[in-house]
Amino acid sequence: MKLVSVTKKGQVTIPEEVRKKLGIKTGTKLMVESVGKELALLRKVEIIDSMKELQRYCRQLARKKGLTMKDIGEEIEAVRAEIWKERYEKSHG
User: Fold this and answer.
1) Residue 25: which region, alpha, beta or left (left: phi > 0; alpha: psi -120 to 50)?
2) CATH no. for residue 12?
């Protein structure tokens, strides 16, 4: 745990070691929230960044499992067909 001070302007410097560990760089957006009498500092997460990270993870996982885009597409279609059957086949034939 690091001790920091608040300046006259209400500014706090996050120690370099902590910034590096958490990947906080110039321009990184952080949110400040009061939690009871405590203070929480949270990294703002952009949805688009989260989606890109999810895509990267899925690509890596697919490569490790030897899956192709065709394999993934076929599996998606099979799941869609199964959901359609469960939800709509009785009423739509």
Assistant:
1) beta
2) 2.10.260
Q: What range defines the domain where residue 58 resides?
A: 47-92
| Length of the chain counted residue by residue | 93
pLDDT at 91 over 80: no
> In this model, does residue 44 exceed pLDDT 90?
no
Full-model pTM = 0.46
DSSP structure string for 68-87:
-HHHHHHHHHHHHHHHHHHH
Q: Do 19 and 11 contact (CB within 8 A), yes or no?
A: no
17: pLDDT strictly greater than 90: yes
Judgement on whether residues 39 and 12 belong to the same structural domain of the protein: yes
The residue-averaged pLDDT of 62-67 equals 92
